Amino acid sequence: xxxxxxxxxxxxxxxxxxxxxxxxxxxxxxxxxxxxxxxxxxxxxxxxxxxxxxxxxxxxxxxxxxxxxxxxxxxxxxxxxxxxxxxxxxxxxxxxxxxxxxxxxxxxxxxxxxxxxxxxxxxxxxxxxxxxxxxxxxxxxxxxxxxxxxxxxxxxxxxxxxxxxxxxxxxxxxxxxx
Length: 178
What we know:
The protein is mostly beta strands. Helix content is 11%, strand content 36%. It is built from 2 helices and 14 strands; from the N terminus they run H-H-E-E-E-E-E-E-E-E-E-E-E-E-E-E. About 15% of the residues have low confidence.
């Protein structure tokens, strides 16, 4: 009876990197490690994080693609169907469809206790307002970039958020990141 052959195979880190990249490109990484693409972990997505409050709905998955003046507002719920080149093909409830840059999509609903954090404030702080309006008084309450919050509601371009220590109020949508 022959003994089994034991061999050690060395694989360079460069080859591992190339293999992982190929697996990502062909969507196999998620199958092997039971992961899903970040943008399509759930088909229900929400437009979020656009500095201008709107994102282009493009005809092709490319920044060079014409957008025919079609945009979606932050907070718009969409269904994600396909991922390609950093873009996700989405469809709105009214049937508009096209490609949106992946970084402007949040998984799932933006409300109902979804975890998020404060981000993008040029001064490092954002106002925590009493009502979803820039005219609403803020009673000198602010939150710093990086503050963890839970999103509880959405209205008129503002998220209703609550901090871990119970501070609650409305924050402009562009400063709430998933």
